Amino acid sequence: MMKFRFRRQGTDPQREKIKQELFAFSKTVEHGFPHQPSALAFDPKLQLMAIGTKSGSIKVYGAPGVEFTGLHKDLSAVTQIHFLPGQGRLLSLLDDNTIHLWELVVGASREVGGVKREGVVSLQEVGNYSLPGRPGIESCSATRVTVLLLLRSCDLLCIGTEGGGVYFLDLPRLSLKDTQTLLQDQITQSLPDDHRCGKSLGPVESLQEHPQRAGKILIGYSRGLVVLWDLSTRHAEQLFLGKQQLESLVWERSGSLFVSSHNDGSYSVWPVVSGNTYSHQPASSTIPYGPFPCKAINKILWRTTCTGSPVLLYSGGMQRASYGDRHCLTIQRDKDHVTLDFTSRVIDFFTVHSIEPEKEFDDPSALVVLLEEELVVIDLQTPGWPSLPTPYLAPLHSSAITCSCHISSVPPKLWERVVNAGRAQQGRQRTHRSWPICGGKNRAPPPRQQELLLTGHEDGTVRFWDASGVALTPLYKLSTANIFHTDCDPSDDPQDPSSDPDMQQEEEEWPPFRKVGCFDPYSDDPRLGIQKISLCKYSNRLVVAGTAGQVIVLGLSDDRSAHLVDVSVVDLLQDREGFTWKGHDRLEPRLKPAPFPPGFQPLVLVQCLPPASVTAVALHAEWNLIAFGTSHGFGLFDYHRRNTVLARCTLHPNDSLAMEGPLSRVKSLKKSLRQSFRRIRKSRVSGKKRTIATPTRKIQEANAALAEQEEVAPVQRRIEPRSADDSLSGVVRCLCFADTFLRDGTHHGPTLWAGTNSGSVYAYALEVPGIGLGRACERGGASESSVCVEAVLGKEIQLMHRAPVVSICMLDGRGKPLPDPYEASQDLAIAPDMTNAHSVLIASEEQLKVFSLPKVSAKTKFKLTAHEGCRVRKVALVVFSSTAQEDYSEHTLVCLTNLGDMHLFNIPGLRPQVRYNCIRKEDISGIASCVFTKTGQGFYLISPSEYERFSLSAKVLTEPLCSVQLDRPLEPTPASDGTTTQPQANGTRKNQLGQAEGQTEESLSSLSSPVLDTPLDSPLSCADLTIDSTGEITVEDVRDFLTTVDEAENNLKNISEEEGRPTGILIN
Amino acid sequence: ANKNHRVSSSRSLSAVEVKSKFGAEFRRFSLDRSKPGRFDEFYGLLQHVHRIPNVELLVGYADVHGDLLPINNDDNYYKAISTASPLLRLFLQRKEEADYTTFGTDSLSRKKNTVLSAVLLRPDTNRKKPPVIISLPKDFRPVSSIIDVDILPETHRRVRLYKHGQEKPLGFYIRDGSSVRVTPQGLEKVPGIFISRMVPGGLAESTGLLAVNDEVLEVNGIEVAGKSLDQVTDMMIANSHNLIITVKPANQRNNVVRSGGGAASGSSGRSSDTPSHIIQNFMARDLESDEDDEDLVIEAGGEAEPIRRTPSTYSMPSMPRYEPHLNLRTATASTFSINANGMLPASTSSGSLNHASATLTAPSPDRAMKKRSLEEDGTVITL
């Protein structure tokens, strides 16, 4: 009676062993730029840089490939990081007023991918401390830490506090030296009478150790007083009676003077002459951007050079009225004065300079600036102070990522040409200086193959990244904007403004601004956005499709070219009457020949009408065919003969939404967003437990009550099968070319397959001249059909459950996926079995199903949704290699669900193999951005600027393996069970051993990160989606959001424009 | 007869007296109540005792309420035998001249056709029209049933909704909630999924088997405990063509009371406020049946066929080349359920079979054909 229960397979120990040799899940490395960085530090001895983030992670970077990551247990923002130079230790201060000590430790050796890896260094927390008192309860707690100073001797940590006291901690034991605590009254006593005004000195704003005389520290108080304090004698050696609100202090290398910066935009130079107890006036005081009111100079550095005049570097200080909103950093030396103008906030900066005590000068070689959205490094030794390209920490999101595509084992020839094209792009800005942060040693084996990651962006660019190793490095940038007429000046493109030194030398302007960095979230025209990418690595053909129905075929060329791009228009509505497109217009192609730099150059532009966003593309370079689909239909284009072979409308007659374009959705999404905010606000109001009845509180209460009244209906979901009338049923979700058996079991030939949002699959038999000649002869029309490609509808399949078709792929007679174009003909892959019957694997959101061909009768299926209650989001066919047997591999279907789980199935049997918990289910953008490699790795966005790289394969994984030469001995720590569970930034890293373990960690990160990670007004913020579980945005909303790329994207744009904030992630 | 009755009452536990009428002739015989045999044996027996071996018969009996009810399968045969007290009165008709309108509530206690003629708008033309023929229950396709009564706790109810591709909405909503469970540690509050709303006129509401605030425990045999509302929603939608929901009804007073043997039994006439339904125990193969899951393949020639196991009687008409779906209209589908209700006028009584048949709708084998023809003609039959 209960037979219909899902039957579990019996476990075969033999099979279980093979599975273990094939599959293993781990999150290996994070690519890109850390989301919301909040602290920066540099270890000049080890040449390591550390970045702390608002979500409590610490990332340490050295030479390319050297990376360590640590995650605090409390996901509080990291406000400061200090290295213990040379020791491989660092201290972090969190927003919750705790101090943590981290160490680089050698992990136990372990087996990875069949290779034994020994002495892998990782970052681990070894201790923490928080000052007594109850900080955080009141906002101005006396013991709230403001600044930390680590003495050069590395055995004492000085802690400046909000209350003005300075505390001392013994290192590395992190114990308080009670007797040494320096409270403010001790300082006030030594003040001259006329400066004692009964007021406190304010919080400690800066602590700096004397560069020559150990044990003497400079203490700067907020109200302006600076004290030179002798730690051993415990008395104030000198007092500098500044009156201006203090921001920062810096010593000159010799210790003969120090510089203070102030909140009025001034900096002062104070000579330190021994024996002079009181200094009333600085030697000089300057307001560089005066005389009008200026903003504070937040941090100042003073670096001496052998050529005489020092280099002065400071952030802020801009004129309040005119440039108060700019994010600037000034480099000044003699007459040379540059105001670096960044697109995002300056978090912190440091210089790389000589630290050997015997050297007389600092001689800074590089300036490293951490901005909110990118890292900028300026070469201070090359005249003109050019910026250095970063080998890692690339701002992936310089324009929002809209799609991505991974190419495994790139042929060396293509690789070389792409690298050269990229070099040509950067040519002029190259400096010959090497990367200044070069600590540690990358011990990872050289990549077995070259891998390309292609990202499509909102501004119409496609960026090519070297994804072969741990450091994701930019290779080449392709811009599609210059094919079209846009509002922006065509000369801007395709070069980055920052990459053009001519443009940086702007005319005499005060301040002398220079635009630096490449983070530019504002798109000229959202229609340029890239939605789909397909690259044939053998023929170097690239197809790029965008938001306004543009499909561009590009070829690789090593020479500059100026040519006119052929334009073909394909009407996907065909003869459907009564529909009017209310969405955006198509992009106007350029009428005059445009110059194209070496690299991928456009050959043909196919414009779909109506110009809805392209939802699927397929490329078959061997047949010179591209297929593309939108929400209205799909088309087939022969780019060799430049003619449209086929256009097919997939619209359902009742589907009005597809026609109305993006506009109609604005209201519903906006409404749900508004409700989300209301809910957030409400939860905040009700969350506070204060009992003081103030007038504002009463209003809040009334508002809360009002909000409560508005949302009476509980979260409920309608249970209704999908119907043909569902909106956007005609959206083409996937396209696929295959040489297979469609009409009968004896003749194979080119076919095209298309799947839609409503579970329809269309299969066309293609007649390609010169391919599948047998067919053409048989049909008798050989002479005619040799002229151009023809497509004949072979079959239509309507899946009864009507779920969107996520993927279609063909399996050969042995049940293996068909090879890519050219692979078989050029002997690059094992030729497919064309003697036995082929089958087609159709993955819908609800089911996986294999049908035999040509009859299309169901062979095997797996009803994922019916069994598990999850829906298929992404599907990939992956080859898993065994760690035990060199030549053993299995083709596996990897399936990412809407719950963020990875389900692996064998093919063609579709038996579940293993399942891993990978992405938080609330992280819709993460799930939507996931791409798989062909060998079992994958990438997904964990923030707008970071890809998490993961591996499902036991054999193939790319993870940081590095070592650092430390002053202290590295002792291996005993590993508990042979596996190290390393935390990773954003709470995502885990080596998953079992479901339960994964889930506990999952809940931890899901609790905290939605609130911390994303700005609440970002339409894609996790906060909204978390709220989804309590219910405003319905599943349908989210589902629609994911499927209707163009609409959602435009909605987001509208919203973001309203809010005046950059959009988060735009993913297809 | 009275005398006989008194005598037979002592034997009534073991034997059932049968009085069978065919035309003007009566036959009397008895059956063993504990071993009634199968319906086809019984049918043969009737043909034998009336000496009409080759006549197709329509067998009816008078139930305790005086309603004329059909006997045409094992279930209603057992029902008739088990409820006969003491006499089972049978009425046989030739199938070809059968008057179907006699079946139904109070059909024996009032004059034939009076209710029907009152319902019809044009009673004068009524005589010329042939009587409208409605099918017998076996010809109907069930739209809902309570299943697995014998294996579930009495507090639970497993309901099967048959969507059959018709356009009538399933018509219910689910929500998150919490329910109290008794555990060894005491009472524990656990999250649960509940039915939150019924769409008027939807399948769920019309069955009367599901109600607002019923707790959903399983969907097609898979427990929902630990699953999110969205997951359960997706599971239900994925199974919507043949949805089996196990619920714990909010109203525990209407539970099916199991008869001792645990065999399937109707609750006919037990209490007037208890809604009664067919209770079927399905074979496992029924539940695993994929008939409704068959995808449709349209060959380039334009011939549509379901993908597997094409039964000979189930022929799909050829379809226009570019129309991927059967374009079923709501009106045509709902017509049939109205048929069933409309033909049985006084369905307010607590009668058993008639009420049950209200939850039945159009027969399946030729349904596609019928709908198709209806749609193509542009005519919709309303009664």
From TrEMBL, chain A:
<feature type="region of interest" description="Disordered">
    <location>
        <begin position="422"/>
        <end position="448"/>
    </location>
</feature>
<dbReference type="InterPro" id="IPR015943">
    <property type="entry name" value="WD40/YVTN_repeat-like_dom_sf"/>
</dbReference>
<feature type="compositionally biased region" description="Polar residues">
    <location>
        <begin position="976"/>
        <end position="1002"/>
    </location>
</feature>
<keyword id="KW-0853">WD repeat</keyword>
<dbReference type="Pfam" id="PF08366">
    <property type="entry name" value="LLGL"/>
</dbReference>
<feature type="domain" description="Lethal giant larvae homologue 2">
    <location>
        <begin position="286"/>
        <end position="386"/>
    </location>
</feature>
<feature type="region of interest" description="Disordered">
    <location>
        <begin position="967"/>
        <end position="1012"/>
    </location>
</feature>
<comment type="similarity">
    <text>Belongs to the WD repeat L(2)GL family.</text>
</comment>
<dbReference type="GO" id="GO:0032878">
    <property type="term" value="P:regulation of establishment or maintenance of cell polarity"/>
</dbReference>
<dbReference type="GO" id="GO:0045159">
    <property type="term" value="F:myosin II binding"/>
</dbReference>
<feature type="repeat" description="WD">
    <location>
        <begin position="452"/>
        <end position="466"/>
    </location>
</feature>
<dbReference type="InterPro" id="IPR013577">
    <property type="entry name" value="LLGL2"/>
</dbReference>
<dbReference type="GO" id="GO:0005886">
    <property type="term" value="C:plasma membrane"/>
</dbReference>
<dbReference type="GO" id="GO:0006893">
    <property type="term" value="P:Golgi to plasma membrane transport"/>
</dbReference>
<dbReference type="GO" id="GO:0051294">
    <property type="term" value="P:establishment of spindle orientation"/>
</dbReference>
<feature type="compositionally biased region" description="Low complexity">
    <location>
        <begin position="1003"/>
        <end position="1012"/>
    </location>
</feature>
<keyword id="KW-0677">Repeat</keyword>
<dbReference type="InterPro" id="IPR001680">
    <property type="entry name" value="WD40_rpt"/>
</dbReference>
<dbReference type="GO" id="GO:0030866">
    <property type="term" value="P:cortical actin cytoskeleton organization"/>
</dbReference>
<feature type="region of interest" description="Disordered">
    <location>
        <begin position="486"/>
        <end position="510"/>
    </location>
</feature>
<keyword id="KW-0268">Exocytosis</keyword>
<dbReference type="InterPro" id="IPR019775">
    <property type="entry name" value="WD40_repeat_CS"/>
</dbReference>
UniProtKB/TrEMBL annotation, chain B:
<dbReference type="GO" id="GO:0016324">
    <property type="term" value="C:apical plasma membrane"/>
</dbReference>
<feature type="compositionally biased region" description="Polar residues">
    <location>
        <begin position="349"/>
        <end position="362"/>
    </location>
</feature>
<dbReference type="InterPro" id="IPR053793">
    <property type="entry name" value="PB1-like"/>
</dbReference>
<dbReference type="GO" id="GO:0060341">
    <property type="term" value="P:regulation of cellular localization"/>
</dbReference>
<feature type="domain" description="PB1">
    <location>
        <begin position="15"/>
        <end position="95"/>
    </location>
</feature>
<dbReference type="Pfam" id="PF00595">
    <property type="entry name" value="PDZ"/>
</dbReference>
<dbReference type="InterPro" id="IPR000270">
    <property type="entry name" value="PB1_dom"/>
</dbReference>
<dbReference type="InterPro" id="IPR051741">
    <property type="entry name" value="PAR6_homolog"/>
</dbReference>
<feature type="region of interest" description="Disordered">
    <location>
        <begin position="349"/>
        <end position="383"/>
    </location>
</feature>
<keyword id="KW-0963">Cytoplasm</keyword>
<dbReference type="InterPro" id="IPR036034">
    <property type="entry name" value="PDZ_sf"/>
</dbReference>
<feature type="region of interest" description="Disordered">
    <location>
        <begin position="254"/>
        <end position="276"/>
    </location>
</feature>
<keyword id="KW-0131">Cell cycle</keyword>
<dbReference type="GO" id="GO:0005923">
    <property type="term" value="C:bicellular tight junction"/>
</dbReference>
<dbReference type="GO" id="GO:0007163">
    <property type="term" value="P:establishment or maintenance of cell polarity"/>
</dbReference>
<keyword id="KW-0472">Membrane</keyword>
<dbReference type="Pfam" id="PF00564">
    <property type="entry name" value="PB1"/>
</dbReference>
<keyword id="KW-0796">Tight junction</keyword>
<keyword id="KW-1003">Cell membrane</keyword>
<keyword id="KW-0965">Cell junction</keyword>
<feature type="domain" description="PDZ">
    <location>
        <begin position="158"/>
        <end position="251"/>
    </location>
</feature>
<dbReference type="GO" id="GO:0007098">
    <property type="term" value="P:centrosome cycle"/>
</dbReference>
